[in-house]
Amino acid sequence: MSAWLRDESTLSPGTSDNERRTDIFGLPRDEGRHHTARVTPAGADWLASAGPYPRSTLSHWATRPTAPGVLPCGSVFDVVSAPAIFGRRMLNRLWSEGPGSGPVAAHRGRTLLFAAPGTAQRLPSLLSWEEWGDPGPDGRGAALPPLLCHGAGDAVTVPPLKPGAPSGPRWVVAPDTRHPWLPGPDVLLWACVRAARAEARAQAAARPHDGPLSHAGRPHDGPLPPAGSRSRSEGRSRAAAPVGAAAVGTAAALPRLPQLSP
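The structure assignment produced for this chain is given below.
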């Protein structure tokens, strides 16, 4: 993903010199900054190409750059929506240990990861092959939060080109090129598994330790008694047992001897 690269290209191939000079997106031109939270003109071109009328979409954004939009999925990109915290863990894994990510947005408590077309159809079947259950000490089999996969026939809300309302959608990694790299289902599966296992290990480490278990499977408050010893309560219970009951138990345990004829 080239989200960290600078792109000085124009809004579209047919943009005039006047439009190029006014720069309707008002992007800052600091050479020392990376525009990860703002869409470049080339990134806007890529987003608009997902809709049926790209030029109309660009004209609308030119007049309302702080308004979010709605774009269809399936042709230019798919979107995988994860709970906010889990989605950020996936993103951290992609950038720290993986190949990086495509554009990423945040909206209504969820993280939206833009993916290659076809991911929404393939990823659920790949996730179904994973073992999601008891995490175990190493975090394997960790539970997976609910993911929403948006593909052909779906539409998603995309953040505005410029930051708008604080409570509205916003870009975490903004598109800045006409041909961004997009992760496929295999890459997102890798990120899901590692984020889930890391979360399971963190929860296991934070779980309070109840102490050693007794032979009955219950927590033992003190040190275990030495081998061969018995508690006072155990001795009292055996002493109070009826003699007949003990005799019956002993007799039942002895083998039956053959009777001899007189």
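Interim note for the steering committee: Helices lie at 17-22, 41-48, 54-63, 84-96, 119-128, 185-206, 232-239, 243-253. Residues 185-206 form the longest helix (22 residues).
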